[in-house]
Design a protein that fits this description.
Helix content is about 35%, strand content about 15%. It is an alpha/beta fold. The chain has a single domain (about 20-275), classed as TIM Barrel (Alpha-Beta Barrel). An 8-stranded parallel beta barrel has the order 1-2-3-4-5-6-7-10, surrounded by 4 helices. Strands 8-9 form a two-stranded antiparallel sheet. Helix 1 (about 40-45) links the parallel strand 1 (about 30-35) and strand 2 (about 50-55). Helix 4 (about 130-145) crosses helix 5 and helix 5 packs parallel to helix 7 (about 200-210). The chain is globular. One of its GO terms (molecular function) is zinc ion binding. Belongs to the AP endonuclease 2 family. It comes from Mycobacterium europaeum. InterPro entries: AP_endonuc_2, AP_endonuc_F2_Zn_BS, Xyl_isomerase-like_sf, Xyl_isomerase-like_TIM-brl.
């Protein structure tokens, strides 16, 4: 039996190739997270350059079903991002969680490949046995287990005890273990805010730790800084200054997904586009 391959990087730059992340007009690609029934139509309605969606129920271990619109998605010029199910916790000490997590991550990567997605985004999870070092090693094994050419991006998370990717210093420790595996990084502004991390220099600090930011989830936060609450809000309706959100996007120089409510998301995209143009 052939050995399993590590997550393939496929020549992905270390966050220093702005040309790969901009349209011909020279602007940052900005888009939205949408329902998965007709993502291209939803992206068009939002005026989105890129789109993100789930391929299956985010609260289910079930394998994604083949999509009837797979050929249309593959033929589209809109870059596609796939969010992995929320249940995934490859850092878990519990075999009944860790093993299914590895399997559904593999299944999600396989399904994402079928539509020529750019990447799969997955949350960091947590060490439910309170052993952070063991959690880091379980992440290493999870990536070694993956057999895919699909890019995988680790996303920082908002709360949870012994979380792998809540606090930036912990992300740095995790990256010491997995940084050579070809995995990318997705910075979520709401999650960083909820974790108590300062957004003003978040991009610089993450790049110092990981060497890269491949995607930004740009979201306002309903709750106060350090709350640990993962509650997104449309720009200007939450606790984060919209100008600060725009500054994060400009500094990251990576594609952006707004995971905000349907009503108002088009305005969120337009705001970021205005602030990042030129």
């Amino acid at each position: 039996m052939p050995s399993r391959r590590k997550v393939a990087r496929r020549g992905l730059p270390q966050c220093d190739s702005a040309s790969a992340r901009r349209t011909r007009l020279g602007r940052v690609l900005i888009g939205s997270h949408v329902r998965n029934d007709d993502p291209l139509a939803a992206a068009e309605a939002d005026g989105a350059d890129v789109v993100q969606f789930f391929l299956s129920n985010p609260q289910s271990w079930k394998k994604p079903k083949p999509r009837e619109d797979a050929e249309a998605l593959k033929a589209s010029a809109v870059p596609l991002y796939v969010h992995a199910p929320y249940l995934i916790n490859v850092a878990s000490a519990n075999n009944r969680i860790r093993i299914p997590s590895r399997k559904i991550l593999q299944d999600t990567c396989d399904a994402a490949s079928e539509i020529d997605a750019t990447a799969v985004i997955v949350h960091g999870g947590h060490a439910d046995d309170d052993d952070m070092e063991a959690g880091f090693e379980r992440w290493v094994k999870a990536l070694d287990y993956l057999e895919t050419d699909m890019q995988v991006y680790l996303e920082n998370t908002a709360g949870g005890d012994h979380a792998m990717a809540r606090h930036f210093d912990t992300i740095g420790r995790l990256w010491d273990h997995i940084g050579d595996k070809g995995i990318g990084f997705c910075l979520d502004t709401c999650h960083a805010w909820a974790a108590g991390e300062q957004l003003i220099d978040a991009v610089d600090r993450i790049k110092a730790l990981t060497g890269r930011i491949d995607l930004v989830h740009c979201n306002d936060s309903r709750d106060a800084a350090g709350s640990g609450a993962d509650r997104h809000a449309n720009f200007g309706t939450g606790q984060i200054d919209p100008e600060l959100l725009a500054a994060v996007v400009k500094a990251a120089d990576a594609p952006v997904i707004c995971e905000t409510a349907d009503e108002g998301r088009k305005d969120d995209i337009a705001f970021l586009r205005e602030k990042t143009s030129g």
